[in-house]
Amino acid sequence: MSIDNEVRIGAFVFTSRYEGQTAGEVLARGVATAQAAEAAGFDDVWVTEHHFVPFGVNPSALTFAGYLLGRTSTVRVGTAVTVLPLHSPVHVAEQAALLDHLSGGRFDLGVGRAQPVVDYEVIGRGVDYWRHGLPEALDLTLAALSGPVSADSELYRFREVTPEPGPADAGPTPVYVAANSPASVELAASRGLPMLLFFDKDAGAKAAMIAEHARIARAAGHSGDGYSHGMALFAHVADSPDEARRVMRRAAGEFVRANSQYRLLLDVPQRVDRAAPQERVVDGLTESALATHPVGTPEVCVERLVRQIRESGARRVLCQVEVSGDHDSVLANVKRMGEEVLPEVRRRLAAP
Questions:
Q1: The pairing of beta strand 8-13 with beta strand 230-234
Q2: What is the DSSP letter of 198?
Q3: How far is Cα 265 from Cα 140, in angstroms, rounded to an integer?
């Protein structure tokens, strides 16, 4: 099988709210982005789940994914991620199987635990579920996707049940695990599941995590290769380096602004060094993204995507195409990606 057939390039619909935008505007842009991505030739659409933060306005990855499956017809739709310890794992499995059936097998379930923030106080059952809840919740989800399931532990206790509607004809819904640490790499590998890797890792770090996943998977009795690991990248087609820098700098500024509010509202560890002047932080984030992510002219975007795929070993790409933050600009970016970037990326990957 050629690399071209293995690689899938998707649009990552982050539902990021920039200053001055309403939640309704952001969600409408997300729906339009998914439909534009399908029309532009993207293979997949991925959606997020965030609670009580100003930057991400979608609190239910499963609900949004279901809506987008109903508004599209060919793309796969996945969650990146469903925050599994916040939900009943058996109910998540039921909903995932339902979406898989209704969509004709177009749904992928990505799960993770997110950050130990107020989500676990308000929706979950405390920070202990953040610390210890994901492995057992994942195992229960996997069992419930395949057939009867029961539990008798400190975290979960219930009689045996058989979730409906059960697996689709093609088999249980594919499951991905968000991996940002050695423990999460081990969790995914020991269950024989592919990983989702995010923006903070460069291609070399992603390759190392994939190699470690292969080692652990083999030791656990699973295959060491053949996994369609996913990775998230910023992606924006610009006419010039100056335009690319303006777009990325605005996105970095919104990220810093949102994280400042996030800290004040939720009292969580700061992702951005508050000791540094804000302008320096924004500049650093901007230049870091421009150096490695597919943000720039069409040729830069092609070269960066091909390099990231080849160097990392990831085979599913989640392109955060909403970097510009404006409805019309985002849709234009998706269209240009489909016309000027994706065909050339696929051609280069397929070349000997």
A1: unpaired
A2: -
A3: 33
